[in-house]
Structures are given as C-alpha cells and as structure tokens.
Design a protein that fits this description.
alpha/beta, TIM Barrel, twelve-stranded mixed beta sheet, two-stranded antiparallel ribbon, 11 helices, about 35% helix, about 20% strand, globular, binds S-adenosylmethionine
Length: about 325
Amino acid sequence: MQDGLIDSFGRRIDYLRVSVTDRCNYRCFYCIPAEGVETAARSEFLSYEELSRLIGLFSELGVSKVRFTGGEPLIRRDMVQLVRLVAARRGIRDLSLSTNAHLLERYAGELVDAGIGRVNISLDTLDPDTFAGITRGGEVARVLRGINAALEAGMRPVKLNMVVMKGINDHEIERMLDFAVERGADLRFIETMPIGEAGLEGGSHYYPADKVLERLRNHCGENLFPVKGGKGAGPARYYQIGSGPVRVGVISAISRHFCEGCNRVRLTAKGELVLCLGQEDTVPLGEGLRRGWSDEALIRAIRDAIARKPERHEFGERRAVVRFRDMSTIGG
Ligand code: SAM
C-alpha cells in the first residue's frame, strides 16, 4: 500500500463519495430547476469496471470508505454489480449508499448481500402532498416502504436526511423526530445549501440549524444529550434521545462550516474528481483513464489534486451561490 492522502492542511482523505449517475427519478425543487438540468451523455459515464479501477486506486492510497450517490444511484442499471466490484477491493471497509429510497424496497436485500452496510435516505416530509410538491411527483408511501426494507435487510445505521425549509416543512421537525425514534433510524436536519440555480430557490426558505436545535430541546426537554465524541469527521453535530440508540444530528453548512475536519473528496459519474462541494476545482481523472493513463499516472494525478484541495467552502460569503455545479451531478 502507498502512503495515505494528506492535503496541504494536514487533513487525511479516507472517504470517497461516488456519484454513479447525474440523473434522478425525483425533481426536488431545491436541487433540480423546473426546466431540468443538462445531463451528460450516457457514453460519458464511466463503466462499472472503470469506476471500480479508479476506486481501487483511491483504496491503495488509503481511502477505506466509499459512499454511492447520484442523481439517484438506484436508477443506474444493475447498481448491485458495482457494489460487488468495489466491495471486493482490498482496503475498502465501509460501503454505504445515499438514496431517495424510491427503489429501495426492491433492492435493499441484494445491496446488503453485495456489501452495503449503511444507508442515508432523503425524507423531507411525511405528508404525501408536501412530499409530492417538494419532489415534483414523488410518492412518500414508497419511500416509507423503502425505509422499512432497509431496516429489515439489516442496514445500520439507517439515517434519514431532512432538508428543513421555512414555510414548507419546518412545522414537521418534531413529528419527524418522533417518527425516526419510533423506527430506530437516525435523523439529520440539514440547512439548505446554495448550490446550483435550484439551490437559490431552496435558499429562500433557509431555516437555521440552531433554531432546529432549540425546537428539539423544547420537544425533548431534559432528554436530549450531546453525543460524546459525536463530532467525528462528518459534518453533523449529534445528540441522543435519553439512553436510546437513536442519534439526531444537525448539519449547518452555512451557519457553521465544518471544513476543518473534511476527510472526503467526490467523484462524478464521468470520473471528475471534485475537491470541495463549494469550490470550482475538478480534475478529469475519467478522461485520463480513457486516454489510457497507467495506474501510476492516475495516482500521480490524484496526489497532485489532493495537494490543492481548498481549505474550505465559501457558501454565503464571496460567492453567494455555487452556480457552476448542480447538486444532482455530485450527490451532496
Ligand atoms: N438521490 C439521492 C438522495 O436523494 O439522497 C442522492 C443524491 S441527493 C443530491 C443527496 C442529498 O443532497 C439529498 O439528501 C438532498 O436532500 C440533498 N440536497 C440537494 N440539494 C440540496 C440543497 N440545495 N441544499 C441542501 N441539501 C441538498
């Protein structure tokens, strides 16, 4: 194994998020603009063998955690095959998935057999009409069945992600917490991020994470405890309800950035390496791979890229909105 990936700020990069497609079967208004987004031609997407080769190189460089995301990862054909290929790579110890769960009831069992251990599921509301409104046509009942299927298949933890939006779903914060506790699922409340044109739309409903926390404290009273050691490399601040197993987190990309602990980079379906969610710089590893670069050349390109990973995003500062990129391409 090679030396690990340490960026110029001393952060160890051991986590890769892989967007397997830029297409989605939902059209969440804060993620995808009404007129849709320009998607890449399918021929530009790396094949599963190509993606697995790149992921294998990252694993040689010390990346042990991989999360598949999208677009919606489960709409890419035979996604389970990619999971199997990556699970077989030496050094990969933690395989997870981010999904809207529309297709999860069908695939949960196979995904677990192939190596997926954990899942993050987007669930902004429990109300069928609000859900159809936010997602422009999605069906919350299917998602709830997907959540049950993930729990039954043994994925742990199952984390629910709720983007909290003023005037849209902020009245459901407490109800969502009760739902998560009942199911034994973790829950994270997320601030809207100004990414892409649709992110602007979402930003107009911005609801600060500190206000969510205040509501949780009021709802749970003495029963809400900060999780000891709960501030890991990830962006969430975690709390637990009583002595129960469920963890509830808030993610505040805007009001409190969490870049100093950043341990991740992202790969798009075309094989572009994205160094920071909120900065422009990408490295076309997929292009290099298709031009016949050797493993050594690709590893050099990865190391050079990590050396220039930016210190932090600039949401809400110099650049109010990240216009150059859509969340649906990189997968959050
Ligand atoms: N389709 C999958 C899903 O639904 O989880 C994976 C991709 S989706 C882009 C990943 C996450 O990004 C979702 O939880 C979604 O709510 C979140 N997201 C998209 N646009 C966002 C925005 N502008 N602000 C905050 N979160 C956003």
